[in-house]
């Protein structure tokens, strides 16, 4: 459903529905933070990490609430996070934490849609799949309103399409009612796999780039001949998509951006030779090369096997032994690299998920369950204030105690930082005008 089609007439294995149309909205209030981010990296932790065990710890709460982990100091006086995130703790001065994110949906599928789009889904359910009428992902809206220039796509998603364990595609990952032309360029492969190669950039064996351009020229002549027979917006736009696709597949800068081998062994080792670490490294390369928004989704080790952050059982063991070791060092390396390369000031990094976990540890081998009422997300760079905490939860991290933040507030803030007026209008499949966000920009958070 989310996989973009191929250019069979050209002999390409490449998404065709990429577009270069959009506009920059007007009317955003004057603000030092507006448009601070030239690019954005969304880190979506599919499954829902436990906020109370990572970033909003309650060491004075009863054992059945506070759990097994201890807090440690960070580079910010008075700010503590989980003891199993020692590397990230040394980057806290670059991170702004929001501890009061809240919504009412405890389903993976529809709460993911809410967080990825900023818009509540009409349903509150699991296992029904993405639909053409869904609200678009933030990256798809960026592709529509403020597309990247050059040969690279505006919006890339990796390393896989997220879905429920039953196999239903999670809504909110694609362009929804905006149409397939604004879908992400999808890398549905783990970049740590041996022989990793972005298949969508590979022409058919034996077909040179020169022959591809020759075929495109021939196809254009044919389309001109049959022009009166072509009807509908889809047909009218297809030539533009084909040209964009051809530019991408034949572009040296695109091939370089997607080439992880160019980083060398030492750099790849720094990020970790696992899926998340290599996904971060590839995302950094793409952002450096001109992609405006990359979403890195948490992955499954095997299809149908739940190796996400959905820790209904063995919460502490899974966090300590499997999950946190995969994110701690790579996140620290990423933030350090962006700072050293002079990119952090205008690159927004966002850690987010569909929800947090229940304050009380359950009886199923010390697990925690779904909890939309309270969660912590964080931002770094791109106009987000480092070394800052916004909002607070109550004494057991069950609900916001101050400054509640909705998913729509988060989307409004992301659009604002990316230089897009959150009040901009897009049209749904019934041609109704809808604001891209119904939330409020978190100006108090952004002021630090």
What is this structure's SSE topology?
Elements: E1 39-44, H1 51-54, H2 63-66, E2 71-73, E3 80-82, H3 86-89, E4 95-101, H4 108-117, H5 138-145, E5 155-158, E6 185-186, H6 209-225, H7 232-250, H8 252-257, H9 264-271, H10 275-289, E7 293-297, H11 315-340, E8 347-352, E9 356-357, E10 370-371, E11 375-380, E12 388-390, E13 392-393, E14 400-402, H12 407-417, E15 425-427, E16 433-435, H13 443-447
Parallel strand pairs: 1-7, 1-8, 4-12, 5-6, 5-7
Antiparallel strand pairs: 2-3, 4-11, 8-11, 9-10, 13-14, 15-16
Molecular structure report:
The chain is an alpha/beta fold and 448 residues long. It has a single domain (8-447), classed as Alkaline Phosphatase, subunit A, CATH 3.40.720. Helices cover 31% and strands 13% of the residues. The chain contains 13 helices and 16 strands. Helix 4 (108-117) runs parallel beside helix 12 (407-417), helix 6 (209-225) runs antiparallel to helix 7 (232-250) and helix 10 (275-289) runs parallel beside helix 11 (315-340). The protein is globular, with a radius of gyration of 22 Å. Mean pLDDT is 88; it is low at 1-30.
């Amino acid at each position: 459903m989310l996989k973009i089609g191929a250019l069979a007439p050209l002999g390409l294995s490449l998404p065709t529905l990429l577009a270069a149309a959009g506009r920059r909205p007007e009317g955003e209030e004057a603000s030092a933070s507006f448009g601070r981010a030239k690019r954005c990296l969304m880190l979506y932790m599919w499954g829902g990490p436990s906020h109370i065990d990572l970033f909003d710890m309650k060491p004075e709460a009863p054992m059945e609430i506070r759990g097994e982990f201890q807090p440690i100091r960070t580079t910010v006086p008075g700010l503590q996070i989980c003891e199993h995130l020692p590397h990230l703790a040394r980057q806290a001065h670059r991170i702004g934490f929001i501890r009061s994110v809240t919504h009412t949906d405890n389903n993976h599928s529809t709460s993911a849609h809410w967080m990825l789009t900023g818009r509540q889904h009409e349903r509150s359910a699991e296992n029904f799949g993405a639909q053409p009428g869904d609200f678009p992902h933030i990256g798809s809206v960026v592709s529509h309103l403020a597309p990247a220039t050059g040969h690279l796509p505006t919006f890339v998603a990796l390393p896989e399409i997220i879905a429920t364990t039953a196999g239903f595609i999670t809504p909110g990952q694609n362009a929804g009612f905006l149409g397939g032309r604004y879908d992400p360029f999808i890398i549905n492969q783990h970049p740590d796999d041996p022989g990793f190669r972005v298949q969508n950039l590979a022409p058919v064996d034996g077909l040179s780039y020169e022959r591809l351009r020759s075929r495109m020229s021939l196809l254009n002549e044919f389309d001109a001949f049959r022009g009166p027979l072509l009807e509908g917006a889809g047909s009218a736009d297809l030539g533009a998509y084909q040209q964009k696709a051809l530019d991408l597949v034949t572009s040296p800068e695109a091939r370089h951006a997607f080439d992880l081998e160019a980083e060398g062994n030492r750099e790849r080792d720094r990020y970790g030779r696992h899926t998340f670490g290599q996904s971060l490294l590839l995302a950094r390369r793409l952002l450096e090369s001109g992609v405006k928004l990359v979403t890195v989704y948490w992955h499954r080790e095997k299809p149908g096997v739940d190796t996400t952050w959905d820790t209904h059982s063995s919460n502490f063991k899974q966090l300590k032994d499997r999950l946190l070791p995969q994110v701690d060092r790579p996140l620290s390396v990423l933030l350090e690299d962006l700072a050293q390369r002079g990119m952090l000031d205008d690159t927004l990094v966002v850690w987010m998920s569909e929800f947090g976990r229940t304050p009380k540890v359950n009886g199923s081998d010390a697990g925690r369950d779904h909890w939309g009422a309270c969660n912590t997300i964080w931002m770094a760079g791109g106009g987000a204030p480092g070394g800052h905490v916004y909002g607070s939860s109550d004494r057991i991290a069950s609900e916001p105690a101050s400054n509640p933040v909705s998913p729509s507030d988060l989307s409004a803030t992301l659009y604002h930082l990316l230089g897009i007026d959150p009040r901009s209008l897009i049209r749904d499949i019934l041609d109704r005008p809808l604001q891209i966000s119904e939330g409020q920009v978190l100006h108090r958070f952004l002021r630090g």
